[in-house]
Amino acid sequence: MSGDDTLPTEILLSDVRTVEEDWIDLYGHMNMVRYVALFDEVGYALLDRWGLGETYTREKRYGLFVVNVAVHYRRELRAGTPLVLAMRLLDADDKRMLSLLELRRADDGTVAATMEQLSIHVDLDTRKVVPFDPALAARLRGLADIQSGFPLPPGHQRKLFLIPKAFDGFHQTSSV
Known about the structure:
Blueprint: E1 12-13, E2 17-18, H1 32-46, H2 54-60, E3 62-73, E4 82-92, E5 96-105, E6 111-123, E7 128-129, H3 134-147, E8 165-167, E9 172-174
Antiparallel strand pairs: 1-4, 2-4, 3-6, 4-5, 5-6, 6-7, 8-9
């Protein structure tokens, strides 16, 4: 994060990775567990740019625990395919944040998979959910206000929300 504590407003992009031979399963494509592992490993590294990565965890003794994910596998990936991970913040409140991660082919931008991820803010000593620092919570909400307005990947339909959903007997509707 910069010295003035502003968060980058653009969608975060990782360095290019390449699908490795040992990630390939019996069917000749990248195994589903590797998709989720990449979302986790690379997404965690990208959190540093929002001030919530390894440095934050070590210095503050707070961390983000993932409590729900929705993964959508869209395209097969084969060995040697270059990949980039994109991450944006869809929503945030005092204790939670909802991110959208996209695994894209680096050569043509095709979205191979998406993962919505709901995380809670936890004190690592007490193992209890705690609020973000108020200034950080405000910055995260501001970032979510910006990034949630960016177009979603073609065909992507949101599965996770911070606002509790009400069920009217036939449809899920927002309880706002």
